[in-house]
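FW: tagging you since you asked about this chain on Friday. Here's the raw sequence from the shared folder, copied in full. Didn't touch anything.
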Amino acid sequence: MKQRVWLAGRDLEFEGDEGDIYFENIAALAQGGGERHLSRFAARHLHGASVCLDVGANIGLTTASLALACPRAQIYAFEASPRKAVRLRRNLSANGLSNATVVACAAAAESGIRAAMDTIDSWSATVSAPIDFIRLNVEGNEAQVLAGAAETLVRDRPVIFMEFNSVAIAFEARRSPLSFAEMIWRLFDVFVVDEDGRLWQRDVRAFVLDNMLRHACIDDIVLDLKPDQDARSIRDALAIEVGAECAAA
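HL: got it, structure written out here
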């Protein structure tokens, strides 16, 4: 099944599975606030030859946004679902997005748990260039991905563009969205992204309250690692979050 999508001034074609809610709404999602935030932020803040990771790429809408916003960048699109990874690869090829490469595995806290899981730290050791940017949308598994990227975060200091979904944090990770946000605010300088891709700082409690009451539980935030953090402090801060997710699994 295929749909036409208008994105960044181009008419694109995506294939997906009938009954997949994300795919069935992909045309509307392409025009939604999340895609505008991402594409405008990328256009404002990324240089042309950036190395970018799209972690939780699904069938390729956000990967396409990054590839079109930065046509000289190299995009690595991580997708855990084998079926979606196949769709992702086909969609990138069909739309001529040759600057994007599919990585068919889940980014995790540890490598080798399952064959299709790897840490960003382990994977990034195979890439010669530093990582400039990470787009992160993993439905409540953010702590695991960040814990597995601790060495990369300190070495390369990539900017992280993350979806904060308080429903996913509460129901998938089984954590308090406020406690998770407070931990993120301790490790990173955190900015909210507006419609034009500009960044604004918010108090953590005011942010979570607005997220739940005004923004349908979904916001885009940008994370910049604080200079006093090292890989061990990142893993230690995230350990309770990762432990809670593993215990709930």
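FW: The longest strand covers residues 218-225.
HL: agreed, and The domain at 34-248 is CATH 3.40.50.150 (Rossmann fold).
FW: great, closing this out.
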